[in-house]
């Protein structure tokens, strides 16, 4: 048993430099790689989130401009429709006036024709 304990102690004593080396490597990794990498990743995440927020703001602004454009387009179409409707109404009134004038003229001509044979007798 003493021999086993002595061998175990020798193995532990021989592993002390390896343990120290691993601790030094871990410390070097933390200082040289981990902290700068964490900082760069945090900056990248902040920039990405900032870019996403900016993109969302740009999309919202574009949607607002699109809605404004569509509203102006609807208003322009309504103005064109009103103008067309006014012209159509004016044309209908002119047509009705022309028809009334034609009927009146035809009635007068018919009356003159009807009276004409009486004049020539």
Short description:
The chain has 121 residues and is mainly α. The chain contains 1 helix and no strands. The radius of gyration is 50 Å and the shape is rod-shaped.
Descriptive account of the structure:
It is a single chain. This protein is an all-alpha fold and 121 residues long. It has one helix and no strands. The longest helix is centred in the middle third of the chain and has 118 residues. The radius of gyration is 50 Å and the shape is rod-shaped. The model has no long low-confidence stretch (mean pLDDT 91).
Strand content: under 5%
Can you count the beta strands?
A: 0
The best one-word shape is rod-shaped
In whole angstroms, how far apart are the ends? 166 Å
The number of distinct helices, counting runs of at least 4 residues, comes to 1
What about the largest sheet?
A: none
Return Rg in Å: 50 Å
Low-confidence stretches: none
**What structural class do helix, strand and pairing data support?**
mainly alpha
Helix content: over 70%
From N to C, what is the helix and strand string?
H
What number is the mean pLDDT?
Answer: 91
Please outline the helices and strands:
Blueprint: H1 2-119
Describe the structure using short key phrases.
121 residues; 0% strand; mainly alpha
